Amino acid sequence: MVKSSIQEMKLNRRGIMVVLSSPSGAGKTTLTKQILNTSRNILMSVSATTRQPRPGEVDGEDYIFLSKSKFSEMIDNDEFLEYAKVFDNFYGTPRAPVETALARGFDIVFDIDWQGAQQLTQAAANDLVKIFILPPNMRELENRLRSRAQDSDDVIARRMSKSENEISHWAEYDYIIINEDISEAIEELTTIVNAERMKRPRQPWLGSFIKKLITGG
Ligand code: 5GP
Question: If you measure from the C-alpha of residue 167 to the centroid of ligand 1, how many angstroms do you get, rounded to a whole number?
Fold first, then answer.
């Protein structure tokens, strides 16, 4: 399909950075995949991590799996936009792909924890939209962790105990979604992203469009 000039103008903007945080098992991955499938001009930031891949995880798609020494080297070279230690492993957002995508007008989704969200707030508050996903209750959270069947009982217990800490940061976020019903949660997420895109400062091309509009061009 040929793009109309208005569609082209809409690409001429700086993208938004959509941060999704939640305790493990609140359904964040499903939500993230959905928004990437259904929304246009939006990409996922692929984080680097020192944790071992889970069964089925693909290097370069789910994460960039790195050794501790390679991760430290990237820290030293200032190659991360943010990084943090979560559950004994390091996780970080490589800077270069994010900057390229934003400059090209793409929005980017980040699946990062509250520490990463805080660091991005300091680095790029104006471009940031922070969303926190909550489970309907803690029982449901544990069920979801167990049904994933990818982590040992020990890891699940530790993730549950960390959940409370993660949840305690809810008030640092712009939006809260309670994921009881996944389709409702997807609709809520899509609404947030669409509304944020329409904010006046995020449509810098409007000035010239309006000039043309009123001069009948
Ligand atoms: P998991 O090991 O379950 O994939 O992720 C554990 C936690 O690390 C999740 O809360 C996830 O949001 C967070 N995480 C993943 N990537 C990053 C990252 O690049 N930076 C930060 N700060 N947290 C991350």
Answer: 14
Domain that holds residue 192: 5-45+106-215
Selection from 200, 214, 192, 189 nearest residue 37 by Cα = 189
**CATH number for 23:** 3.40.50.300
pTM value? 0.90
Indicate if the alpha-carbon torsion angle 188, 189, 192, 198 is positive or negative.
negative
Among 21, 33, 47, 168, name the best residue to mutate to test ligand 1's pocket (greatest count of ligand atoms within 8 A of Cβ).
47
Domain total for the chain? 1
d(Cα 150, Cα 140) in Å, to the nearest integer? 17
Residue 101 lies in a domain: no
* CA distance to 79, 87, 94, 108, 122, per residue, from 17 (Å): 18, 24, 14, 5, 13
- The string of pLDDT tens digits covering residues 40-79 is 899 999 999 999 998 899 999 999 999 999 999 999 999 9
CA 113 to chain centroid: 9
